[in-house]
Each structure stands twice: as structure tokens, then as C-alpha cells.
User: Which sequence fits this backbone?
């Protein structure tokens, strides 16, 4: 089917309208009795509409860099040109993911007071609009600007609603690490504009670079994305930020902000500098392998529940870079699948740990033991989420990791074998985590409370579990090979 | 009396607006009128009017009527130097500006050490005037002319003349001193530390635009393009200003020193555009000065609203005055260069200019400087939003302050949403580009 109206209008405008509305009527909303319900319903429009676009309109934008566009002519020194927002299927997957994750965060925040909820709602909606635009845009400088702009709301989310005093340090680290990396990227962007005179991605694909400049530009882009993914040794901001952030902040970070890095690698690094990507692939393998092994080993010695999930995120995200730099359809499709499934699985884990924190106000693992005794529902749900995290067959992580290992094996069998070791270590720390928290005799430090069936955690996590198991059983929705056009276009 | 000064400034704005476009010379090529000088005059007049309007309560309390006249005299000095097409007029204008500034600092009755500051400023400033004069004499000895007309042709004919290049270097050094660019910046924290906040902001912000333009003209008209020592000096100044300004900014607890060090960093960035002779650099300089001035005047009006110089006043601002806190966040994020706020466009234009002129050396100080100063601006935002206030009493600001803060922050925000506005506001792009070919 074709749309009579450009679907981009809806996707971009809905969240912006809601933001403006809620800022204007903030004081009225804070007093109202059904504010949270009203806001949840009103913000459900975007995820539903984007899902509608994904399921029904796929003939119109079946391949990467081809679809509906929305153009703005920008003329400001030094750049003059067109900023395009382009809706292809690859970006649309991330738009749907953004809309759903932000909507899930609203359920997660349900226990907040009305005032806090409205303030958080405004920041969440801002993040949704910024990220939607960042995933849709086709102009490098616009992507860079949105990539940086999203730091402002997440800085306030961590800084204001974080749990401990260390939150300031975490927010600063998040902000400054990204700023540092992206400064190199903005130098590279300026260089591209000076030499080629355009910043539109479609025009830049296939341009010729000299050996040195292509590699330097690739390095500048890679530094910005590597900090965002994050790859060892730039990963230290992530555990800090996850530990200090409120639950919805952690969900946003894991599900969306880290994806900006891998998304950027596919859409910008790979498409703009294919030769340099090919040249540096062994280097990326090395860094990814170090990150995977280091993160899974260091997860074993962590005692903070959120840090464990954060370090396991580092491992999964670096699996994605392995897949991206295998340069074949299996690897790239696996990377796309893990990007989506990691969003679901780590969100589930963060939400469940957040509900534990709300009950006992500690995340230190040593205080927990034997929760199965009086929390059967939480234990079951957590167990399924842990199985998802260790890539159990039947969950979407399994399909993704399997595809990535196939893809990597074609390029470099040694890398695939070493990366395969992580299957063991992931299982080790995940199962050990579950074992320490839920099994055994009841800890003396915790008092018995209600199970999670009395708040919003249960429905949200069950929906997420259905999503990642559904993707594991029927991954074809994401694997319709819209990566092939990218590979053809960049001649990889 | 403050009203009278405002009327004078607005009359000046109208006079500037009705000037015809194009380049004109007067008094046998002594004075030059051009679009660039007009636009800089427009910016100087509006920004100083905004500053004076926001502090009118302060000014009528602590400054006498004759002090305000001296203030106007300093603006006349700036304009004379700005329009100069000749070393004699440039010298007279700069001296008029300098002497007015020494007197102005001493005349402020708000702070006890102001006379000491004025005297210190006078002593250091006179030494630099001597250096300026020596430079002018050396250029005269070598070229036989004070006028900038055909100066560059004479220079090409002369080739690498050491007297000429030393003279130009001395003039540039005296200008760098007046701009408070490193390594000639050490007087600024000392002397401005002894004077009041209004004087720091008026003298640290308003003369920057004309001075940078004068420096650009001197380098373009007088220097020899192959003169490497001059460029070495300016590159040294760029690197040192950005690094020392941003490192000096760290953990300052006084509004005056925050403002001074932030201006040192930004002047360093602006100098990186001065030192390249191309149309792109002229445009970059115009965009950068405009945005920097707009952001700084917004920051200055914000600092004025607390009635104190101590950083503690910012603590927990979101609880005692949320609108002021949001304005502070906008201004500080803009200064940190976070897109799409106005500060990003100025930073990007500088980066573009370094790439365009292939002066990659500035990358390293720029990255370090941006990160360090972004850290400190973030620290200020953290003080506003995340700290607990010292007292829960709501903070009220005067009508004048709120109106001028609204205007200043509004302009910064408008530039962010509609970036082409900077082209209209600065308007200097074409004007400064033309100067190269005149």
C-alpha cells in the first residue's frame, strides 16, 4: 500500500506536539487525577503509528536509503544544503524501537509522583523526538547534531532522578566522553564538507578518497561511535551511568543510546568509507574480542546488580560490531537482530532489577539470597530474562549471535572461534547471577514483601519477554535482507 | 542620566542604519566607511545599550554623570579606531578608548579597590601604548607611509623587510594585549579582579569586536603574506589562549574570573580565524564574533541578576527561580557548544575554517579546550540544577534585568532554531569579505 500523506509528518510531529502541549499545560497536568493514564494513552499514538508503517507500508521503503523523504533547505555559514529526513525500512525499525522503548519507560515511571512524572515525561518525549530524527536523517551534520543533543535530556534524567550522590560524576562522564569523541567526528565532517561540498549521505556514497584521508576520517568517525557503543577502553562511562541512572534512564541508555553507535557504524562508517572499513576490520575484530572477553570476565566479579547487566551489555554490543564488520548479509542481519533483541532483553533485566531496588533500596548482590521463597513470579520472569541474556535457543539473542558467528566465520574463522567462547562465559555469569540472587536459603538482610504482580513491572516485562521470544521464534520480520542493497551500494 | 545615554546610543543605532551600503573613504583615505564597520558599530551600540539598560539601577547608584560621559567617549574611541584606514587615526582611537577605560574603572564607587585597578591598568596600558607607537614608527620607517592604501603593494615590492615585519608584530602584540589574549592575558584577572562586575563585562566584551576587526585589517593590509614569524606569534597566541583560558576557567568561584577566562578562550578561537587571509576566515570571524557577543551579553545579564559575585548564588537556582535557571541552562549549554544552540554554529564555523585553511595544528588545543571548558559549563549547570539552595527564599530580579535577559536569551535561542538569523544579525559576512579586495 502507499500512504496518501507522508508518514514522516506523523512520526516527527506527534511527539513534538505532545512535548509542546505538556510544557504549556504543565501546572494543570500536575494537579489532575488521571494525568499518568492520559499521558500514557496520548503517547501511545507514535508507537502504534510507526508499527503500522512498518507492517503495512513495506513495499514503499523496502531497501536502505530509499523511501519517503522530508526536505529542509538550510543555508547558514558555513553549510548550505538540504537536510533530508529519509524513511527507509532500516531506519523505521529503529523508529519503532524508539517509540516503544519510550512508551515502556512511561509504564516504568508509573510509581512516581505526578509532578516528577510530568517532568520526566517531557524529557522522555524530547528524547523520542531527537532520536527519531537522528535515526531518520540522511545528512551527516544533522546526525551529529542530534547525536549530541540527546545528551542534554539524558544528563538531566541521570542528574536529577539518579539515586545516589555519585550520579553527578556519572552524568558528567556520559556527557564528556561523548563530547570528546564527537569532536573528532565534527572535524571529520568539516573536512568532508570542505573537500566534497556536500554532507548528504546519498551523494557521498561512492566518492573517491585518497588512502590517507579515508583512513583518518574513518578513525575519527570510529572514535565517536566506539565511545558510544562502548568498546574497551572507552567503556568506563557505561557502568557508572547505568548504576546511577533511574530505571527508565537505564532502559533508555541500553535500548536506544548505545544503538546510536552501531547504527552510525552501519549507516555512516560502512557506507561512507567502505575501503577503510575493510582495511580496519582486523583491528575492529581485535577490539571487539577484547571487549567481549574482558566484559564477560569482569562481569563475574561485579557485585552491583546493575553493573552486571551493564557489563553484559558491553559484551552484546561488541558482538554487534563483529557482525557489522563481517561485511556479509548474515553478519549484518545478525547485528540488526541483536540490536533489537538487546534492547528488549536488557530493558527487561533493568526493569526487574529496578523493581527489586524499589523494594529494598540496595543493588548490592550480597544482600540478596533465596528470593524464590516468597517471590515466585519475579523469579520466573527474571529466569526467562536471564535465559534471553545468555542467548538460549528460542530467544532472539540466539538467532542474532548464531548469524553473527556464521558471518564472522566466513571472514575470519579464528575470530569466530574466540567470540564463540563468550557463549560459555555469558552463560556462566548469567546463571551464577540468578543462582546467587534467587536460589539458596533466604537472606537475613531482606524482609518479605509483595511479589511484583501488584505494580506495572509484571505486564511490562511480560510484554518484553513475548517480544524477544517472538523474535527468536520468527526472526523473519527483521531478516528480510534489507542489508543487501547497502552491501551492493558500497560494493563490499 | 542613564536615560540620556540610552537615547544617545539609540540615535547612534539609527544613524548607523541609515548609512548607505558600500565602501567610502574620507579625509584623504584617513577614514573608511564600509558595511563591515557599520555592522560592528551596530552590534557595539545595541549590545552596550542592552547592558546599560539591564544595569540602570546599578549605574544610577554608583556611577556619576561624568562617568557615563566617559563611557560614551570610550565608544567614540572604539569607532575611530574601527573606521581608521591609517595608523595615526588607529592610534588616536585606541588611546581614546584606553584612557577612557582607565578612568572608568577608577570612577566606579561600588568597589573600594577600583582606584588601584585603574592605576594598575594605566601603568600597564601605557607601556603597551609605547610598544604600539614603536611598531607604527618602524612600519613608517620601512614603508614611508602611515596610510594603509597601497600598503600591500609596497610590501610586495619591499619583500622580506625585517623592520617592517617587526613593526607589524609590535602592533599586533599591543592589540593582543588589549584583547587579553594569552600570553598577554595576565593583567586581566588581576586588574579586572579589583574592579566591579559591570566594568569587567563592559570592558571585557564591547571592545573585542572592533579590536578583532582592526587586527584583521592590519594583518590584511600591512603585513607581508609570507611573513612566517607573525603567523607563528598568532598561532602561539591561539594555542595558549584556548588552553590557558579553558584550564584557568576550572573551579573559578567568582563571576568576574569566570567571565574573563571564558573570554580568553573565545578570543583564542577568534584569533584562529584572524590569522588566515581568505574570505572564509572573514566570514568565520564575523559569525564567531556575533554569536560570541550575543552569548556573552546574555551570560553577563544573567550574572548581574544575582547582585553578588560569588558562584554560591547559583546553587539550586531551579528551586529559587526556575525561569532564570532555564535561561542559565540555555546560555551555558550554548557556551559549551552543544548543538543546535547558537554556540555550536560558532564552534563549527571555526572548525570549518581550520579545515578550509588546512591549519590542522589548531585541532589539538581546540579539542582539549572545548572539552575542559564544556566540563566547567556543565559544572555550572550542575550547580544550578542539582545542588541544594543555601536559602529557600525566592529570588526576584528587576524589570529591566528580566526584560533584557529575555531579549538576550531569546536572540541566542532564535539563532539556534533559525541559524540563518545569524547572517542577518551579523550582516558582516559580505562586508568583511569585501575588505580583502578593497
Assistant:
Amino acid at each position: 500500500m502507499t500512504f496518501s500523506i507522508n508518514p514522516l509528518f506523523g512520526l516527527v510531529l506527534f511527539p513534538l506536539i505532545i512535548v509542546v502541549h505538556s510544557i504549556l499545560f504543565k501546572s494543570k497536568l500536575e494537579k489532575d487525577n488521571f494525568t499518568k493514564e492520559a499521558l500514557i494513552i496520548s503517547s501511545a499514538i507514535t508507537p502504534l503509528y510507526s508499527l503500522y508503517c512498518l507492517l503495512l507500508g513495506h513495499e514503499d521503503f523496502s531497501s536502505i536509503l530509499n523511501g519517503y523523504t522530508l526536505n529542509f533547505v538550510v543555508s547558514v555559514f558555513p553549510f548550505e544544503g538540504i537536510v533530508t529526513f529519509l524513511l527507509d525500512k532500516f531506519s523505521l525499525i529503529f523508529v519503532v524501537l524508539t517509540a516503544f522503548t519510550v512508551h515502556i519507560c512511561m509504564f516504568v515511571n508509573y510509581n512516581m509522583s505526578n509532578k516528577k512524572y510530568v517532568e520526566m515525561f517531557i524529557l522522555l518525549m524530547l528524547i523520542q523526538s531527537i532520536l527519531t530524527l537522528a535515526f531518520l536523517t540522511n545528512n551527516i551534520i544533522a546526525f551529529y547534531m542530534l547525536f549530541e543533543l540527546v545528551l542534554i535530556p539524558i544528563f538531566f534524567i541521570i542528574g536529577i532522578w539518579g539515586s545516589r550522590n555519585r550520579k553527578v560524576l556519572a552524568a558528567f562522564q556520559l556527557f564528556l566522553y561523548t563530547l570528546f569523541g564527537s569532536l573528532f567526528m565534527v572535524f571529520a565532517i568539516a573536512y568532508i564538507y570542505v573537500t566534497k561540498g556536500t554532507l548528504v549521505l546519498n551523494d557521498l556514497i561512492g566518492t573517491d578518497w585518497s588512502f590517507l584521508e579515508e583512513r583518518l576520517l574513518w578513525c575519527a568517525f570510529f572514535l565517536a561511535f566506539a565511545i558510544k557503543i562502548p568498546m574497551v577502553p572507552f567503556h568506563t562511562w557505561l557502568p557508572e551511568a547505568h548504576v546511577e541512572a533511574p530505571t527508565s534512564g537505564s532502559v533508555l541508555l541500553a535500548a536506544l543510546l548505545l544503538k546510536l553507535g552501531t547504527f552510525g557504524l552501519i549507516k555512516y562508517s560502512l557506507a561512507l568509507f567502505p575501503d577503510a572499513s575493510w582495511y580496519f576490520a582486523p583491528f575492529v575484530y581485535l577490539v571487539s574480542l577484547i571487549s567481549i572477553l574482558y566484559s564477560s570476565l569482569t562481569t563475574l566479579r561485579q557485585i552491583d546488580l546493575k553493573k552486571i547487566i551493564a557489563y553484559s551489555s558491553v559484551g552484546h554490543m561488541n558482538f554487534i560490531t563483529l557482525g557489522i564488520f563481517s561485511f556479509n548479509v548474515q553478519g549484518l542481519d545478525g547485528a540488526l537482530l541483536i540490536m533489537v533483541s538487546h534492547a528488549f532483553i536488557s530493558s527487561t533485566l533493568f526493569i526487574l532489577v529496578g523493581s527489586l531496588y524499589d523494594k529494598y533500596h540496595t543493588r548490592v548482590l550480597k544482600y540478596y539470597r533465596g528470593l524464590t521463597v516468597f517471590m515466585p513470579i519475579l523469579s520466573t520472569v527474571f529466569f526467562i530474562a536471564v535465559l534471553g541474556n545468555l542467548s538460549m535457543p528460542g530467544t532472539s539473542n540466539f538467532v542474532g549471535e548464531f548469524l553473527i558467528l556464521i558471518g564472522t566465520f566466513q571472514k575470519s574463522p579464528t575470530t569466530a572461534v574466540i567470540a564463540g567462547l563468550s557463549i560459555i562465559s555469558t552463560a556462566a555469569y548469567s546463571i551464577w547471577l540468578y543462582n546467587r540472587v534467587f536460589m539458596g536459603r533466604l537472606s537475613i538482610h531482606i524482609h518479605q514483601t509483595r511479589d511484583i504482580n501488584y505494580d506495572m513491572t509484571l505486564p511490562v516485562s511480560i510484554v518484553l519477554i513475548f517480544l524477544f521470544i517472538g523474535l527468536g521464534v520468527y526472526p523473519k520480520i527483521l531478516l528480510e535482507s534489507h542489508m543487501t542493497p547497502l552491501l551492493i551500494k558500497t560494493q563490499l | 542620566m542613564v536615560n540620556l545615554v540610552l537615547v544617545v546610543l539609540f540615535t547612534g543605532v539609527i544613524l548607523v542604519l541609515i548609512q548607505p551600503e558600500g565602501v567610502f573613504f574620507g579625509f584623504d583615505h584617513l577614514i573608511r566607511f564600509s558595511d563591515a564597520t557599520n555592522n560592528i558599530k551596530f552590534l557595539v551600540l545595541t549590545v552596550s545599550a542592552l547592558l546599560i539598560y539591564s544595569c540602570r539601577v546599578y549605574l544610577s547608584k554608583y556611577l556619576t554623570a561624568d562617568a557615563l560621559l566617559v563611557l560614551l567617549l570610550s565608544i567614540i574611541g572604539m569607532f575611530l579606531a574601527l573606521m581608521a584606514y591609517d595608523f595615526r587615526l588607529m592610534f588616536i582611537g585606541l588611546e581614546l578608548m584606553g584612557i577612557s577605560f582607565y578612568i572608568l574603572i577608577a570612577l566606579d564607587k561600588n568597589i573600594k579597590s577600583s582606584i588601584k585597578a585603574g592605576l594598575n591598568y594605566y601603568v600597564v596600558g601605557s607601556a603597551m601604548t609605547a610598544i604600539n607607537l614603536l611598531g607604527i614608527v618602524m612600519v613608517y620607517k620601512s614603508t614611508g607611509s602611515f596610510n594603509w592604501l597601497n600598503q600591500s603593494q609596497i610590501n610586495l615590492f619591499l619583500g622580506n623587510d625585517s623592520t617592517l615585519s617587526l613593526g607589524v608584530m609590535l602592533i599586533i602584540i599591543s592589540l593582543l594585549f588589549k584583547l587579553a589574549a594569552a600570553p598577554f592575558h595576565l593583567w586581566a584577572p588581576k586588574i579586572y579582579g579589583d574592579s566591579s562586575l559591570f566594568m569587567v563585562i563592559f570592558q571585557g566584551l564591547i571592545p573585542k569586536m572592533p579590536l578583532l576587526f582592526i587586527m584583521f585589517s592590519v594583518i590584511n593590509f600591512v603585513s607581508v603574506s609570507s611573513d612566517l614569524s607573525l603567523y607563528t606569534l598568532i598561532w602561539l597566541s591561539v594555542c595558549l589562549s584556548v588552553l590557558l583560558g579553558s584550564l584557568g576557567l576550572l573551579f573559578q568561584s567568582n563571576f568576574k574570573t569566570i567571565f574573563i577566562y571564558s573570554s580568553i578562550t573565545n578570543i583564542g578561537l577568534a584569533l584562529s580565524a584572524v590569522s588566515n587571509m581568505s574570505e572564509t576566515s572573514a566570514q568565520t570571524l564575523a559569525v564567531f564574533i556575533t554569536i560570541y557577543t550575543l552569548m556573552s551579553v546574555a551570560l553577563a545579564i544573567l550574572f548581574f541578576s544575582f547582585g553578588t559575585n560569588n558562584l554560591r548564588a547559583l546553587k539550586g537556582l531551579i528551586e529559587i527561580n526556575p525561569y532564570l535557571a532555564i535561561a542559565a541552562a540555555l546560555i551555558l549549554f550554548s557556551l559549551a557548544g552543544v548543538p543546535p544552540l547558537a554556540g555550536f554554529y560558532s564552534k563549527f564555523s571555526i572548525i570549518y575554517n581550520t579545515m578550509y585553511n588546512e591549519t590542522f595544528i589548531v585541532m589539538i588545543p581546540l579539542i582539549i579546550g572545548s572539552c575542559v571548558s564544556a566540563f566547567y559549563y556543565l559544572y555550572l549547570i550542575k550547580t544550578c540544577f542539582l545542588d541544594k539552595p543555601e536559602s529557600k527564599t525566592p529570588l526576584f530580579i528587576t524589570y529591566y534585568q528580566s526584560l533584557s535577559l529575555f531579549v538576550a536569551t531569546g536572540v541566542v535561542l532564535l539563532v539556534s532554531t533559525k541559524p540563518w538569523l545569524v547572517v542577518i544579525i551579523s550582516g558582516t559576512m559580505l562586508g568583511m569579505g569585501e575588505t580583502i579586495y578593497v
Observations:
- The longest helix of chain B spans residues 114-143.
- The CA atoms of residues 16 and 416 of chain B lie 26 Å apart.
